[in-house]
Amino acid sequence: MPHSRFTRFAAATLVFNVGVVLFGAVVRATGSGAGCGSHWPTCGGTAIPLSGTAERFIEFGHRASSGIALALVAILVVWAVRTRPSRDPVRLAAAAAGILILNEVLIGAALVMFEWVADDRSAARAVSITVHLVNTFLLLAALALTVWWSSGRPVPSRSPDRPTLWQVAIGAGALILVGAAGAVTALGDTLFPPEGLGGFEADPAGGFLVRLRWVHPILAVITAAYLVYLSRTLRVPEWMRSALGSLVVVQIGAGLLNVALLAPVWMQLVHLLLADAVWIGFVVVGSTALVQPARVEMVSA
User: What kind and span of H or E run contains 121?
Assistant: First the structure.
């Protein structure tokens, strides 16, 4: 396998970043976002807090893991630049990951310094976490493509089949939209814990955060149906079709269970992990579908 050490490191970096995403959800779900106060990059005015509340240590732990993720991506970028030609797709994907993780750092800093954390219920916070989710998805996509292409898999054609390109683009857009709606819904579940069947009861105090609970599941079902359709029609190896379709079905089941259980933290984390898996899987499938038809069979090797 070409550049196997690089590929393994890229895969480890991707997995670690998924872990950081889940850790971020723990910070949000436990209301620990203000654990370090409005200080950034220090925590409560110190580089390494030696005392404080549980919320402070949770928030500091997330910051520390984010710092490690930044270092891993930086190493990946340097490695790609030193070993790959200037226009090589792997180098471009790694460079994109470098830019996107810097965006993650800046968005995280803004959340802290503008105090869009803990019990803040502002529309600005909802917008900021939406932007955060979109950037996170793009980061995971860049890392996934770095892994996939560096393993020797073919890259998309410069002139892909136009209908297929549109199908993949619509699928990607739908997944990002569902993810953004899910991020806002999760925020509403944290600030206004659901009560009763599905948590869809009216709650004037929750405002738009509670009313939007209807939006995410509707978008999710529509998107799932489209992805299952794509998994049967895109020109990719059969194992890819089965894997993507199965992930989508499992994710819908997890979403329904999350609603039925009134969104406990552990189930939110399972739901988020599956969402990341579906997104990464779709990125790989989409990349493969845009390869010249004669070369698609290479990915089944």
Answer: none
